[in-house]
Write a structure and sequence with these properties.
single chain, 213 residues, alpha/beta, 4-stranded parallel β-sheet, two-stranded antiparallel sheet, 6 helices
């Protein structure tokens, strides 16, 4: 987006994934936030130690921005593929603070069986105001704004996995904008970037107005 001449007053932080052995790459090292054992199904065995370590690294980066005086509503976390998956998990379970938004391009859900526990640990409900616990959890989740974009022809991270992740989050009440793109493989398209740019602009405008969309 910076290359498009947009968001000149915004600081971009691009953390680099470490070089680690990746099972689907015959065990050879390549940049990765966690190991991937196969691409056969979304419900594969996640590399929980690797995911947790990378989540902690991203939490540290976010915490540094907060300590530098950046309001959480002005922090948008996002990524592509592994970065998208990690961004959704990390952003939605970041302790105490709700971020300005989370975007995921060609992403999928991580650690679904652990997600609810991580979310409640990070954001314990202090006052349910007469609502049931489930109602209060969903009401709080509605304040989390997420953009998901996915190519319909993605052979690596199947669009069905993105849809399943979208449904997983919708069931929990998160405010998800979902876009899918004809003919797009495991990449980003100009239309997807246009949609993302519009979404980011809306999130930054909302933060300036002290509200949410």
């Amino acid at each position: 987006m910076r290359r498009r001449g947009k968001f000149e007053d915004v600081e971009f932080v691009f953390p680099s994934a470490p070089n680690i052995p990746i099972t689907v790459n015959f065990g050879m090292k390549m940049p990765g936030w966690y190991d991937i054992t196969n691409f056969d199904t979304l419900n594969r065995s996640d590399d929980e130690p690797g995911i947790s370590n990378s989540r902690s690294q991203i939490n540290t980066i976010i915490s540094k921005s907060l300590s530098n005086g950046i309001p959480p509503s002005r922090i948008i976390l996002g990524g592509f593929s592994q970065g998208a998956a990690l961004s959704m998990l990390t952003g939605l379970t970041f302790p105490q603070h709700r971020l300005g938004g989370i975007f995921a391009l060609s992403g999928y859900g991580l650690m679904p069986s652990k997600f609810d526990g991580l979310r409640q640990e990070a954001r314990p409900l202090k006052d349910v105001s007469g609502k049931s616990k489930e109602e209060a959890i969903k009401e709080d989740a509605k304040k989390e704004i997420v953009f998901m974009g996915h190519g319909k022809s993605d052979p690596l991270v199947k669009v069905e996995w993105g849809r399943m992740t979208r449904d997983f989050m919708n069931e929990r009440g998160f405010n998800v904008t979902w876009k899918e793109y004809d003919g797009l493989e495991h990449s980003a398209s100009p239309q997807e970037l246009d949609d993302l740019q519009e979404w980011v602009e809306a999130r930054l405008d909302a933060s300036e107005q002290g509200g949410s969309l």
